[in-house]
Amino acid sequence: LVWASDLEACARHSPGGFFGEGCQRLLAVPLRHRGRTLGVYNLFFDDEAQAGPDITAVLRSVGELLGLALHNARLEREHLRAAVLHERQMLANEVHDAVAQTLYYMKMRLPLLHDAMLQHDDERSLKYHADLRQAVSDAHASLREILTHFRTRMDPKGLLHALQALQAAYHDRS
């Protein structure tokens, strides 16, 4: 705790004559947590009265509690920031896994469709067209799922079924 009687700096920054007239002294109480000063709160006095040891002990305790509260507020703010970053990363991963890869597949299939059309190969053209139509449908469904739930839907039949469906789709496309 620090007592101050020279309040000229306060008076220069505060209009109205409070410092030096109504306020004669200032007690600065540090807001501490685990040995670190996180801030200060000030008490203003209109006379030269000195706080006793019991009052200063209470003020120190209040300073420590306020320091703990500040520390917890900073931790909570950091936790929320980390949670938002984590959610953004998960969303980016979902978009990459569900939409970007399908779009890349479509990008690879378009030249094949173009070549088949130029060669008047109707069978291959129809196959690549069907592949692209399915990929657009899959990308749209994935994007709707992400936008609705911020994550893709899990296969209700389980992981093995989902992997088998992915393998079958890959085999069909390849």
Describe this structure in words.
- With 174 residues, the chain is of the alpha+beta class.
- The protein has helices at 8-13, 53-118, 122-149, 159-173; strands spanning 2-4, 25-33, 36-45.
- It has a three-stranded antiparallel beta sheet.
- A hairpin with a 2-residue loop joins β2 and β3 (36-45).
- α2 runs antiparallel to α3 (122-149).
- It is rod-shaped.
- The model has no long low-confidence stretch (mean pLDDT 87).
Provide the gyration radius in Å. Answer: 34 Å
Broad shape: rod-shaped
Q: What's the overall average pLDDT, rounded?
A: 87
Largest sheet entry: 3 strands, antiparallel
Quantity of strands, as a count = 3
Uncertain segments: none
Structural class, by secondary structure, is alpha+beta
| β-strand amount | 5-15%
| Structure annotation, total helices | 4
Trace the largest sheet across and list its strands: 1-2-3
For the record, give the distance between the C-alpha atoms at the N and C termini, rounded to a whole number.
76 Å
Query: What is the helical fraction, as a range of percent?
Result: 55-70%
Order of helices and strands: EHEEHHH
Summary keywords:
174 residues; alpha+beta; 66% helix; 13% strand
What would a concise description of this structure say?
The protein has 174 residues and is of the alpha+beta class.
Q: What secondary-structure arrangement, pairings included, does this model have?
A:
Layout: E1 2-4, H1 8-13, E2 25-33, E3 36-45, H2 53-118, H3 122-149, H4 159-173
Antiparallel strand pairs: 1-2, 2-3
